[in-house]
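Q: Predict the assembly, please.
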Amino acid sequence: MEQAVVSGHQLETSTGLDNRKLLMWVFLASECLFFGSLIAAYLLYRDRSVQGPYPSDLFDIPFTSVSAFVLLMSSVSMVLALSSIQRGNRRGLQIWLFTTAVLGILFLSGQAYEFTVFHHEGLSLSRNMFGTTFFVLTGFHGAHVTVGVLILLSLFTMTLQGKITQEESLPIELAGLYWHFVDIVWIVIFTLIYLIQP
Amino acid sequence: MTLADYRKIRPEDLEAKEAETGAHAHPSALEYVQIGIVLAIVTAIEVGLYYLDISHNLLVVLLIGLSALKFSLVVLWFMHLRFDNRLFSQFFILGFLLALSVFMVAVATLHGKLV
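A: Predicted assembly structure:
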């Protein structure tokens, strides 16, 4: 069999690439469709509500901006975690992984607070079209962040047990790809849903 | 470089090329931090624009442009698509374009007002 060589590593796969990483990219491509559909649904129905509350009554841009900033910075800490382990710095990996998880939890706390405020203002899943599409879109994003935090905490535990090494850093890379994807989805949501209002 | 060409490269060739050019497969931690700072500044500009009294159409164009910039920075640098094999990029771009197509078709069919 012809041996493939990628980035200095020999992989005996038909593409020469690591199948786990390829699978992650295919998964992320499918996630583009998933979130693209939810965002389209929101933009189509947000101003077709026959009763309030409406987006302009509820959105707190300064608060959401801080949340967006927190998630953006978690992407920086995630890439620093990967960079650390690729350079053999396990202590750095632990610190940055933990930081990323904490920032993720902070973002989720902000989202929980926002949902609570909106609920008290009278918005619910069944209240109007804005409520339905907004909660489904941001709720699914929050669920993705929650899964990401659980993955990060699992990886953090594995690093404490010494199971992640410089040579076997792929789990960190895959978790990073997932986490950055969750971040870019929020970049789009923050602009299209919060900042651009009809 | 095609995937077939890439597969023919030997590890020692890659190492020699890196040593020759001083290039590394991935950016340094400092570069990541610099990109993070750029992302934070762009976010601040976006929020600032939101409060400016400018025309709605101009605001939409500027915000989507800045958002695309942030999206690209994260995908190309943090997700390493700029440095990784092209096959990964092709898969992701395919998914992204499909999503965009579904989005446009849905909006056109239902006569949606996007902005």
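The helical segments of chain B are 3-8, 11-21, 29-51, 56-78, 86-109. Residues 3-84 of chain B form one domain.
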